[in-house]
Design goal:
single chain, two-stranded parallel ribbon, Outer membrane efflux proteins (OEP), four-stranded antiparallel beta sheet, 12 helices, alpha+beta, 513 residues
Length: 513
């Protein structure tokens, strides 16, 4: 039997347990937890980009970078373009299953192509910047109010005195630039010319989209016509093969002649598959020009529905004069040059002083006590009107260098205008004579197709009568197949060259909505 000795210390411990007082180890555990949390916070802070920026770049030159898992959804293209994709689906699905002619495709492209949307938003941004440039013409009005409590201690005899004060100071201020010697007008003119350049750039973007649609439309139509021509060539080769087979069965032709006809048929089938591949490539190009996915169903009208131009109606000198006068990208370059002139004026204005007027009105209200005395209240208005004349005397040669910079930019823009003018003249010149050549090639292709068709018909009749050889028949068939493809290519080339002339001149026909 064990006897427990009861002492004062035992009683004190039991009393602490009964009262629920903390043990001596609890503060240690709390300190350990605080220390662990602090170390964890320091470890997290070490991964901050301002501390260890290399954690946010590729780890090595031979390892790809990937964002954190939680950040990946914001970089998915589908999330960014979802609204545009929905709009494109709505606009396009309305005419799904129908055949598009060229004007309808152009209208669709102007609504869906990201290039036109981007250029439009850039023009809107420039318009907003032009509005911002008008702000200095207006007075600037602001209000502010300081309110709070302070306690001040003064050393006085026989002891320190205390001032306790609540105060509020509301104030309204008006600032207006009276004279700036051309700063505001130069900034406004600079913004106006940049807006004009953006607007002209938007017009040229629209023309570029229209020209891209035209070129790819003609390319797709030509590819489809080439498929049709290749299909007809396959039928032609099969007709030749059947004619040779009949003569072989009658003993009037040899087996090598039949093999030669079979070779011609296989070659025609190979060309047909190649033509189908070209259709798929051209369809993707047209979809890209319009601004839709390549898997969108786009059925277009054939080249037979396209009017073939025979003349431009103007000489090359007239077209050059029109292009230099009206091409939007040239006008945009001219606007950029005018903007550079405004920048020069703005730089020169920095050498002159500026006069600003400032007026404010407010009230000073306070409630305070002095060494526990009665509360004293006071309120009185305060106002002032000032004229501020400011002129920088020395700015570290920045104004001089800014004059040099803006003048150099002005001269560079002038040369840019001249360079683009020469490029425009060259483009019009080349496109004009390319069109003239395309017209002649089209006429030659028509004559070639008619002659090849007549030659093949005669050779087929004479071969069936035994008056011509298989080589003559297959040669005429090959010539007819080539003539059909030449006709298709020359038609598409003529239509494309006509559109190229219009694009070079800047006279692209944009449908009115």
């Amino acid at each position: 039997m064990r006897v427990r000795t009861v002492t004062d210390s035992n009683l004190r411990v039991d009393a602490r347990k009964r009262r629920g007082l903390p043990r001596a180890g609890i503060p240690l555990r709390a300190a350990a937890l605080i220390l662990a949390a602090s170390l964890a916070g320091c470890a997290g802070y070490a991964e901050r980009p301002e501390i260890t920026p290399d954690l946010y770049s590729p780890a090595a030159a031979d390892r790809q970078w990937s964002p954190a898992a939680r950040e990946q959804p914001q970089y998915h293209v589908a999330a960014v373009t979802q609204e545009i994709a929905q709009a494109a689906s709505e606009d396009h699905s309305a005419s799904a299953g129908s055949r598009y002619d060229l004007p309808r495709l152009i209208d669709l492209a102007l609504r869906l192509n990201p290039g036109t949307r981007q250029s439009w938003q850039a023009a809107r941004s420039a318009a907003a910047s032009y509005g911002i440039a008008q702000a200095p013409y207006y007075p600037r009005v602001g209000v502010e109010a300081d309110a709070g409590y302070n306690r001040l201690l003064f050393q006085v005899n026989p002891g320190p005195a205390v001032i306790k004060q609540w105060s509020a100071s509301p104030m309204a201020e008006l600032t207006y630039t009276l004279i700036d010697f051309g700063r505001r007008s130069a900034d406004s003119e600079l913004a106006r010319q940049e807006l004009a350049a953006a607007n002209f750039g938007f017009n040229r973007t629209m023309q570029t989209v229209v020209f891209a649609v035209q070129s790819n439309y003609y390319a797709l139509a030509a590819a489809q016509a080439a498929v049709q021509a290749a299909t007809e060539n396959v039928e032609l080769a099969r007709t030749d093969f059947e004619a040779v087979s009949r003569r072989v069965n009658l003993g009037l032709a040899t087996e090598p002649a039949l093999l030669l006809a079979r070779e011609r048929e296989a070659q025609a089938e190979f060309q047909l598959e190649s033509a189908h591949t070209l259709v798929n490539d051209s369809r993707a190009g047209l979809a890209l020009a319009i601004g839709v996915a390549a898997d969108e169903p786009l059925e277009i009208q054939s080249l037979d529905h396209q009017p073939v131009p025979k003349t431009l109606g103007k000489e090359v000198e007239q077209l050059i004069t029109e292009a230099v006068r009206e091409r939007p990208d040239l006008e945009a370059e001219a606007a950029k040059y005018r903007a550079s002139e405004a920048a020069v004026k703005r730089s020169h204005a920095e050498w002159l002083p500026g006069l600003t007027g400032v007026a404010n009105y407010g009230d000073q209200a306070s409630w305070y006590t002095f060494s526990n005395s009665n509360t004293i209240k006071s309120a009185s208005p305060q106002y002032e009107a000032l004229l501020t004349l400011r002129r920088d005397i020395f700015t570290g040669f920045s104004r001089l260098d800014d004059d040099r910079r803006t003048e150099a930019n002005r001269k560079a823009e002038r040369e840019s205008v001249k360079s683009l003018e020469l490029e425009t003249i060259a483009e019009v010149w080349r496109s004009y004579y390319d069109f003239q050549t395309a017209v002649k090639k089209y006429q030659f292709a028509q004559a070639l197709l008619a002659a090849a068709q007549e030659s093949y018909n005669d050779n087929l009749d004479t071969y069936r009568q035994g008056l011509s050889t298989i080589v003559e028949l297959l040669t005429s068939g090959t010539a007819l197949a080539n003539a059909r493809l030449t006709m298709v290519q020359s038609t598409a080339e003529l239509l494309t060259s006509s559109a190229t002339v219009a694009y070079a001149v800047g006279a692209v026909n944009i449908p009115k909505r």
